[in-house]
Amino acid sequence: VGAAARVARRVPLRRRALAGEVLDVAPSLLNKLVVRGERVGRIVEVEAYRGESDPASHAFGGPTRRNATMFGPAGGLYVYFTYGMHWCANVVCGPVGVAQAVLLRALAPVAGIEAMRRARSAVARDVDLANGPAKLCQAFSITGTDDGTDLVAGGPRADQAGRLYLAEDGVPPPPVPGQGPRVGISRAADWPWRFWVPEDPHVSGARRWRRSGR
DNA sequence: CTTTGGATCGTCT
DNA sequence: GACGATCCAAAGG
Prior knowledge:
The radius of gyration is 16 Å and the shape is globular. It contains five helices and nine strands. About 40% of the residues are buried. It has about 210 residues and is of the alpha+beta class. Helix content is about 15%, strand content about 25%. Strands 1, 2, 3, 4, 5, 6, 7, 8 and 9 form a nine-stranded antiparallel sheet that branches. A hairpin with a 2-residue loop joins strand 2 and strand 3. The longest helix has 7 residues, at about 20-30. The termini are far apart. The protein binds a DNA duplex (13 and 13 nucleotides) through strand 4, strand 5 and helix 3.
């Protein structure tokens, strides 16, 4: 079978793929795709947040108005607002009632780059379009109105409507992902629950962390 | 190249 | 009333 015959088909992720334990789901999302209309990005960096047992999670301390989506079914999109100006996006996983979620930290632009540039007009280089949790939300126009979106309801209808969903195109997660402490938190700051695609230039702060040896 | 500080407001105490 | 699961411009070497 020639390469042309194996051209990657994009297939929406199934809820089953997200229903497991967050520490398994998080690295399994590496190299999966985020799709919104013409815009497509490959997930290259994530962080696991383990709900009520995780001091760094927004769900630590139980349900509130803000974190309600995290207690819902796997496949939900949990979007939150921070620093008075930025949105960040998470993929909910685990069973209903268990508030586990995977923070999307960086994407490699795959398609719709012009649309991403329009959403981030000040950016000079493509590598900077989605190499951070708030940057990728800008690039994909993700805001609070997207909170609660079902990310496994993908397909032509979703494409038509410009609805967000997750997909795969046959690229497997890295056999040995990069792993290290989560970024920007103060509690449980040493727990190594950040995962990334090794050597990928779109990982957030890639330059800084490469120089410091991680 | 690296470091510093400002922006800005919803959320929970 | 304090504090962010951040980003960027500006200033300094």
